[in-house]
Amino acid sequence: MRPTIFLHFLVGILVSLSAFCIINAEDPYLYYTWTVTYGLVSPLGIPQKGILINGQFPGPTIEAVTNDNIIVNVINKLDEPFLITWNGIKQRKTTWQDGVLGTNCPIPPNTNWTYKFQAKDQIGTFNYFPSTKLHRAVGGFGGFNIAQRSVIAVPYPIPAGEFTLLVSDWYKNSHKVLQQTLDSGKTLPLPDGLLINGHHKSAIFTGEKGKTYKFRVSNVGIATSINFRIQGHTMTLVEVEGAHTLQEVYESLDVHPGQSVAVLVTLHGSLKDYFIIASSRFTKPILATTGYLRYAGSNTPASGPLPIGPTYHIHWSMKQARTIRLNLTANAARPNPQGSFHYGTIPIVRRLVLANTAAKIGGKLRYAVNKISYVDPETPLKLADWLNIPGVFNLGTIKDTPTPGPAVFGASVVGTTLHDFVEIVFQNTEPTLQSWHLDGYSFYVVGYGSGNWTPDMRRRYNLVDAVSRHTVQVYPTGWSAVLVSLDNKGMWNLRSAIWSRRYLGQQLYVRVWNNEHSLFTETDMPLNALLCGKAKH
Questions:
Q1: Are 494 and 434 in contact (CB under 8 A)?
Q2: Which runs of consecutive H residues, i.e. helices, occur in 47-190?
Q3: How far apart are the C-alpha atoms of 90 and 332, rounded to whole Å?
Q4: Which residues cross the membrane (predicted)?
Q5: What percent of the chain is modeled with pLDDT above 90?
Q6: Of 282, 258, 255, 256, which is closest to residue 190 (Cα–Cα)?
Q7: Are 117 and 97 in contact (CB under 8 A)?
Q8: pTM exceeds 0.90
Q9: Would you state the pLDDT for residue 115?
Q10: Which residues pair with 136 in a beta bridge?
Q11: What local confidence, expressed as pLDDT, does residue 537 receive?
C-alpha cells in the first residue's frame, strides 16, 4: 500500500472512531413509569387516604449519577390534576420540566405526561413531591440522590453504605379537608405527628459495627422544622443540597422545611440498637418520632433516655446555621474546587428585599410578598411568555422593596436578565419561622439576623465561604440574605416551603431572560407540552 493511500486509510479509521465515540458519549438514561393513585395508609395508626406512587408510600427513590438523563412517565389516576416538582434539581435549560403551575399545565386525571430532564452538573441529596394543591400533605414524595461520577473524587472516605431518610410532618385529616380549612380563611392546626420514611416509630436502618455510613436526610414536611439526632453517635456534615461543606461534627442538626443534608455516622458503639430521633422546632407542644439504628447481629433493643434536642432556642439554631460553610478546596460535580467561584467579589446589579406578611383579602386569610398575594393564572407563565400571550402577567406587579398599603391579588413576576448577579433579602415580619426556596438555582446564604435588615447589615455578610443551597430559613422577625448568579434561563418559582403559606399566596416567579433564541441557553418548548388556559387556543 502506497504511503499516501495508507495515510488516508488511517485518517478514515480515526474519523470513524471519533464519530463512534461521540455517538456513544451521550450520558446514560434512567427510565421510570410512575402510576399515581390513592391508597390506604396508616402512619399514625388510623387508616386514611394517602397518595402512592406505584403502590409505594413514600414513593420510590431515584438514584442517579451526575449528568444522567431522567425520563419519568407520570400516569395520574387521582381525581384531580397533578404535578410533581423536583426539589433542588436545577433543570439546566429545561424550565419546562420544573413541574409547577407557573411552568406546566397540570396532568389531568386518567392521563399521563412524561418529564425529560438531566441531572446536569449536580451531586447531592434532593427529593421530589407534588406541587399541586395540598397533595404533598398525604404523600407522593420521595428521595432523589445524585452520586458523583467515578472520575470525580469525594472529599471524604467512601462510606460503607447510604440511607435515605425522609422526615415529614403528618395530619390525620385528608388533603381535601386541609385545603377546605385554608380556603375558608383559617390557618392549619399543628400537625398530628412526625414520620421517618412514612413510619412513626418503626423505621430501621442496619449497619455493621466499626463502619461509616452516609445518612441523607430531607425535611419533606409541609410546615415543621425538625431537629435530627442519633442516640450515642455524632454526625459529620459533608453535604448540603449539592454543596460539600466543611466537615463539622454535630450532636444534632436543624433541618427546616424543604432542606436536605448528608452526614457521616460511624458505628462505634456497643452491639445493640440505638434511637434515631426527629423532633419539632419552634412548636408547642413538641412533636417527636423515632426510628432505629441497628447494628448487624444486635439482639438488644434500643433503651435509655432519648438524647435531648433543642425546642424553641432560636439563637441556638441561628448560631448553628452560621457554622455550616462551604468547603472551598473540595469539588462538587466538576473537578474544579468549589472555592474557585469568588462570589463575594462580583458586583451586584439588582437588590430585592422581599417581606412576607399575613393579610386579609375579602375577609379571608392570605399571605403576601411585598403586598402581592400570588394567584396562579389559568395559563402557565412560561407558556404565556414563550407564546407571547398577553394579559397573563405584568413585570411591574411586584416591587423590588416593600411599600406601605393593603395586600392585593396578583401574578408576581420579577424580570431579570440572564447572568445578572442578584442580592435577595428575605425580611420576616412575623413571629414564626419562614423557609424560602428558589427553583432552578442554588444561592449563597451570606447572612442571618434579627430585626429589620438595613444596608449596614452587608458588613456582616460572609463573602468567602457561605454555603450554597436552594432553601434558606428566615428566623422569626428576622432576615436572611442570599446572593445568586442568574445563569439559568427560564421562569423560576421563588416560594415559601411552608406549603399552606405558598397555597395562600406567599410565592412569586423570577423570569431570567435575554432576547437571544439559542439552544445553548434554553431548550425549545417540548413537543409533548400540555396546553391549557389561553395557550390551548
A1: no
A2: 175-183
A3: 14
A4: none
A5: 95
A6: 282
A7: yes
A8: yes
A9: 98
A10: none
A11: 83
- Closest by alpha carbon to 444, among 263, 254, 241, 258? 241
* Distance (Å, whole) CA 319 – CA 313: 10
Strands, E, within 100-156: which ranges?
111-118, 124-130, 142-147
Q: Given this model, what pLDDT does residue 134 score?
A: 98
Identify the H or E element spanning 4: helix 3-23
Residue that has been written with the C-alpha cell 442516640 in this structure: 231
Using alpha carbons, select from 126, 154, 473, 123 the residue that is nearest to residue 322: 473
Nearest to residue 203, comparing CAs of 186, 215, 190, 189? 215
| Chain centre to alpha carbon of residue 111 | 26
Of 379, 411, 407, 376, which is closest to residue 394 (Cα–Cα)?
411
Spell out the residues 6+ positions from residue 448 whose beta carbon is closer than 8 angstroms to its own. 318, 321, 322, 474, 475, 478, 479, 480, 481
**Which amino acid is located at 428 in the chain?**
N
Give the span between the Cα atoms of 397 and 408, in whole angstroms: 10
- The CA–CA distances, whole Å, from 362 to 118, 182, 200, 410 equal 43, 14, 39, 14
Question: Measured between alpha carbons, how far is residue 80 from residues 36, 109, 175, 403 in Å?
Answer: 11, 6, 12, 38
Q: What are phi and psi of 177, to 5 degrees?
A: -65, -40
| Residue of 29, 82, 95 lying closest to 53 (CA atoms) | 82
460 class by beta-carbon count within 10 Å (0-12 exposed, 13-18 middle, 19+ buried): exposed
